[in-house]
Structure formats: C-alpha cells, structure tokens
Amino acid sequence: MSQGFWTLGRENGIVELVLEVPGASANTLSRAVLLELEQHLSALTQARSEPVKGLVIRSNKPSGFAAGADIREFISLREPGAVRAQVELGHRVFNLIEALPFPTVAVIHGFCLGGGLELALACRYRVGFGDRKLAIGLPEVLLGIHPGYGGSVRSVRCIGVRQAMPLMLTGRKLKGKKAKDIGLIDRLCDDADAALTSAHELIRRQPAAHKAPILDRLFSTRPFRPFIKKPLLASVQRKVRAEHYPAPYALIDLWANFGVQGTEALRAEVDSIVRLAGTPTAANLVRLFLLQERLKSLGAADTQPAQRVHVIGAGVMGADIAAWCAQRGLQVTLQDRDSACLARGMQRAKEYFEKKIRDPAEREQALGRLRSDPSGSGIAEAECIIEAIVENLDAKRALLSSIEPKLAATAFIASNTSSIPLEEIATALRDPSRLVGLHFFNPVSLMPLVEIIHTSETSAQVLNQAIAVTQAISKLPLPCRSAPGFLVNRVLVPYMFEAMRAAREGLEFAVIDQAALDYGMPVGPIELADMVGLDVCRHVGSIVMQALGRPLPDMSELDALIAQGKLGRKTGAGLYRWENGKVVKPPAKTAREYPADLPDRLLLAMANEAVACWREGIVEDVDLIDAGLVFGSGYAPFRGGPLQAAAERGYDECITRLDTLANRYGSVFKPDLGWTSLPTSAIAGAE
Ligand code: NAI
To answer: Is the beta carbon of 318 within 6 A of some atom in ligand 1?
Structure first.
C-alpha cells in the first residue's frame, strides 16, 4: 500500500530509505508518511533472506531532511482521541527504529526540525552536511506544544539536560557546527556524497552511540532533578507565564517527574502532548504559524525581487532599513541631503553589523554591500527606491518628482510614510502607478511586519514587486489599502489613547501597563507610547482621529512633555524615565490592582477598531487583521490577535460589553457596525 513517500534502496547489505513527499517543497511527517515508514521497517525486521547490515534514512528534497509534523493535518485532528492516535503512531514508528537490530544513521541536510529531528534522534547516528544551511531544532514550543514523538526524552538522552532543555524551551535552530559541537550530530560533512560515505563507515565500524556527558546523566537522575528544575523554571518564568504559555512548564515537569530512562518517560510525553494540543494557546499559535506561512507566500511567484535598493533619508528608519537590506544580501545605496546625517546613518548601520553579525567575513560582506551615496547615483541603478525622509508631504512630493526622471524603467518607489495618505504623495509623480508604501516598524531589526500600502492607482506589478522585496529581506508583507494609520497604527491609537485617559483619571502608569501585561501584551500601552516616541504618537494619533471624525482627547499633558523635549525612550524621559534604553518604572504607590473594567477598556477599544478596519476592507480578511496586529505590534500571540480573542470570547459578549463601556466612558466605545457581520477565522482549527 505504498504511497511513494519513501524509496527503498539497497547496496552491499545497507538499506536506504529516502523520503520525498511529492508535490511539497519540504518533507513533513504526515500520518501517511509515518504509516508507510512503519511498513518498510516491519518488512526489514521480518526479512530473513538477505541480512541487513544497517539502515540509512535520508531525504531527496533540496530543502532538507524533514521540517516536522504536518501542521495542517495536526490541527485538523479535533478530537483528543485522534491526537493521541497520531502521537502514538509516531512513538510506535520511532521506537521501532530505535529497536532495530542493526545500526541506523540519519543523513540530514537543510531543515531537520521538530518531528524530523525526533526521527533522526531515534537513529543510532546522525550525519549532517551543508553546515550553514542546516537548521536543526525542536521548535514545537513555539506552537504551544513540546516534542511529541519521543524527542523530549531522546534529546536529553543524547546531549544532556543542559543542552537539550534550552534547545526545546527556546525553540531555536542550530547550524551544523553548533549541532556537532553539542553532540546532536556525530559527523558534519561538506556534501551529500561525503555524508553517505561517512554513514556507511559508521555502519561498518559501529562505534558507541553518542550519549549525554556523565554529569548530565547524573543530573537526570531522580535525586538531582529538583535542583536542576529550579533554574530551568526560573528561566521560563522570566519570559512567560504558565497560564499563557503552558508548554515550556509542561516540558520541565515531564523531565522532572519522569526523567529520561525506560519507557515511562516516553508514555508520559504522549499524555502531556495530548493535553497541550487541546489548549487555546496551541490552536492560536498554530494558526499564527500558518498565517505567517501565508504572508511568506503572498504575491506572484514569478516576480523577481529587487537586488539593488536605494534608500533616501538616513535617519532612524532609513539607516536601519538600509542596514537590514544589506545584511539580507541586497546591494544598497544610502542617501541623505545632509552629509552629517548620512555619516551618522552609515555609522549606525556599521554598529548594527558589529552587534548582529558575529562572523567577521560576513560582516565585511554586509558592509561592502552598503554604500554611502550623497549624490544619489544609485537611483538610476536601483530596482527599488525607498523614501524615508521627514514626515512632511511637501518634502516628500518635491523629492519624488525630482527623482522620477532618473528612475530605471522597471523601478518602483516605496515610501515609508507612517501617516501621510499615499494618494497625496502620488500626485507628485507623472506615473503614480509606480508608488507603493513600505511601512516598516521601529525598530526595523525586531519587527517582522512591513505593511505594503497601495492605492487604486498602484499597479499590480508594483504591488508584487514590493511584496517580493519584503519577502526577500525576510520580512512579512501585509498588503493594506491606503487609509489613515493603515492597519497597525490605527488599531493601536484607541488603545494608547484610552490608556492615557485612564492615567488622567488618576491611575498610575505602571498600574495601567500591568493590566495589559496581565492580558499577555509584551509591553503596556504607556511604555509602548514612550518606545514609539510621544511626538510620533501624538502626530499619528491626531491624524487618525481627525481622519475618522473622532474627537481628539485632551492632549495637554502630552503636549507639555513634548514641549519639554521629553519624547520617551529616545530622549531618556517621557511618561517614564529611561536609562540606557531600558524603562525605569517608579515603585507602585498603590498595589498593582486596577479597576475590573480596565483590561476591557484597553483591549476592546483595540478590538473595536480592528473590526472597523475589517469592515472598511483595509486588509483582505479577519485573519490578516490578526496577523498584522501580532506581527506588527506584538499583540499577545497566544491569544491569536484581537479578532481571534474576540471570537473566543463571543462577538455578542463583546458587543454587550462595549455598550456598557460606551454608557460609562462615552461614544468611543460604541460598537462598530462590523461586529454583526464579522466572520470567524478561515483557518481550520482556529475557531
Ligand atoms: P528622521 O528625522 O530620523 O530622518 C529623516 C532623514 O531624512 C534625516 O536624516 C534628514 O536629513 C533626511 N531628509 C529630509 N529631507 C530629505 C530630502 N529631501 N532628501 C534626502 N534626505 C532628506 O526620520 P525617521 O524617524 O527616520 O522617519 C522617516 C520616515 O519614516 C517618516 O516618513 C516617518 O513617518 C516614517 N516612519 C517612522 C517611524 C519611526 O518610529 N520613527 C516608524 C515608521 C515609519
């Protein structure tokens, strides 16, 4: 009943099983793939005629060995019984590999993640090739679960608790050299041929399988486990709460309660994963993963991304965008009308490379790709011009009309404006179809999203080019209709303004922020305002409110701070004090308790605006609204975004609550008309 996922080969008594899932860019371990593997393994153990000397498992996909379980299939399993059956299948197959009476070697390249690495860990040896392209890890925790095919146990057996736990708790990916250093792979070869030769040699020689260092084996014994559990737990508690992200806590408990010897630990892993798979956190994180994949694959597949980018404006944003593009392999020229600003921008980029790129050769190459270009000679050669000058319509219009005649025939212009309607900038161009917005978020290196702003005049080709270049620099493109505040800033404005109103009513800043932190936001709205810059908040906030015909809140205190030059983090003082880029919150005068309706005031203000954006068609659908807010503002990922959180709560309940808030706090809380026709997420498993 083979479906052709695995090809069986045999050479001198060594059997080879080669995985190649048809029609997919990467191998994933679906139920069918595992079942077929089980059949092959059973046949091998039963074959009596030709003795098997060893088994090599490898992949024929250029992208790598295996990227993990089939996520779409996994979330389609609604019933806990179905999840259990799937997990038990993985256990059965990988136990079978482990118990084979002959040596087994996984030959890995490219992606070897999650279930892929768990498969490799069930083999006696692992040989990797293509060092820098290897991406080895157990990232399940990022999906709200932990390894579930024996990986939580076998990884600790192989490399020890001190290496395996951080690997699983952070979900980070390792390159080949690092994986070799910690013993996750036994050999690291230059190419596939060398790796196969090495695998055959391991089968012939049969050295002892790699085991965790003796100290780690001691740490995994019952008496020592409580002592190691403590710092592990502390490292997780510093980052996330158990009620928000239960998986890392479950992983530590699993190890602390069952260790890694015998079959009990493996059985306990099954129970734990079945529990976690049923949590809203897992459903929401998986949905976001799929949304991320959606953003990565937007646009026309045949659009060639720009290789050369010219950035105009070497301020905070321009310099950071230029550095990011150069780091990601593009040829970049950076221009500013002010030579001192340009020099500062280049210096900023250099410091960024020094901080972020460890390999000196790579750092030099990135630096070599970025060129200071005071005269703008790069304009004619670039396929993409990014405008990041001051937020002033006349300045932007003057600049664009002056550069348009110099553009290469197929080049397009991308403005990084955060608040000026693109249509107004476009009138400066003879050909407005060449203009698009590329709205990067600050800080560029940390924020994964770029809003791609388009008007009715932006050509489809330019939109695709903008999407392609965004993807080429490893950012997530979110196409947005040109409208005040676009998506992310518009939804953030009511949230931040409501926080400031609560402050004017007498609530302490830190208490307001605490309400948002308790909900799961990475930072509270007051701290966020300081991070963005109070001047920027005020400016964008007023534009959004005015454009939407809403009354502006009392800004006198904000204006007073701005007049004193207290703009937030960038000036060392704002609503809070800042030291070395870190916020200094005053000790709370009151216990950090807040009125029961404060979380709703903040979060429903946001959800209500998100609904309005959906109704107005700012982005294509509700899924993209959530994606925008999570990837563009850090909205609590485990909640899935403002609309997913509202769906979980029930739209009717949200409307009722908004009505109550409107009675108490005014019309800003009037439920948007869109609530009554709002669909739920289109992604399976997310409801
Ligand atoms: P900035 O004030 O730090 O830098 C602007 C730079 O543009 C200055 O170096 C200035 O000398 C240069 N410049 C001004 N006019 C010029 C011209 N005609 N030709 C060449 N260079 C010129 O500004 P920032 O913060 O980098 O913002 C730039 C753009 O990015 C603005 O449109 C802003 O709205 C947008 N933006 C800003 C964000 C932020 O958090 N700062 C976030 C997202 C977008």
So the answer is: yes
